[in-house]
Design a protein that fits this description.
Number of strands: 0
Shape: elongated
Strand content: under 5%
Structural class: mainly alpha
Largest sheet: none
Low-confidence stretches: none
Radius of gyration: 18 Å
Length: 176
């Protein structure tokens, strides 16, 4: 990877934001709200799904596997890949010299993005049950990815890998 080119790209992208402390704070808050928003949306979705009459028949195990198992498996696989790949984050990469928008303490485990993988798999799980909601969540998941890059905690390729994994795991659920 050409770290100097990435540094130039990142600095151009964040120059205006870094000059405005309020903008930095908004980015940080938005990132947290979207991450926790996915947790809340998923919990509400599961509650509505499993509280429907006859939701668990005739194949209750299939519904649980699809709506709970696939996201859990995606999360576990993304976590395992991060551990295997051990890619440093942009702000800790030797030679990149990236100064992230928000101070971050975590080290390594940048590839793939677990936030983005989780957001996309949840979106895909919702999609067949609520088309408008699923599409909305896919758009928001894209925003989650953009924010992860903007904050300087992931490279674009980390985000893309997380998105593709989330979509792939979610697509398996569309088959059932």
């Amino acid at each position: 990877m050409n770290y100097q080119a990435y540094k130039t790209f990142y600095e151009k992208m964040t120059k205006g934001i870094k000059a405005r402390p309020a903008a930095k704070k908004i980015i940080e808050i938005l990132d947290k709200v979207l991450a926790w928003g996915y947790v809340a949306a998923y919990a509400v979705f599961l509650g509505l799904t499993f509280l429907q009459p006859n939701a668990l028949s005739p194949f209750p195990w299939l519904l649980v596997l699809n709506k709970v198992g696939l996201p859990a498996l995606c999360f576990a696989c993304v976590t395992a890949l991060r551990w295997l790949i051990k890619r440093p984050r942009p702000y800790e990469t030797e030679g990149a010299g990236i100064e992230s928008l928000v101070e971050k303490r975590s080290r390594g485990n940048s590839m793939p993005s677990r936030h983005v993988g989780s957001a996309f798999v949840i979106s895909m799980v919702v999609l067949p049950e609520c088309l408008i909601g699923g599409i909305f969540l896919l758009v928001v998941a894209t925003g989650v990815g953009a924010l992860r890059v903007l904050r300087g905690v992931h490279y674009p390729s980390d985000v893309l890998a997380g998105a593709l994994l989330g979509i792939a795991f979610g697509a398996v659920g569309l088959l059932f």
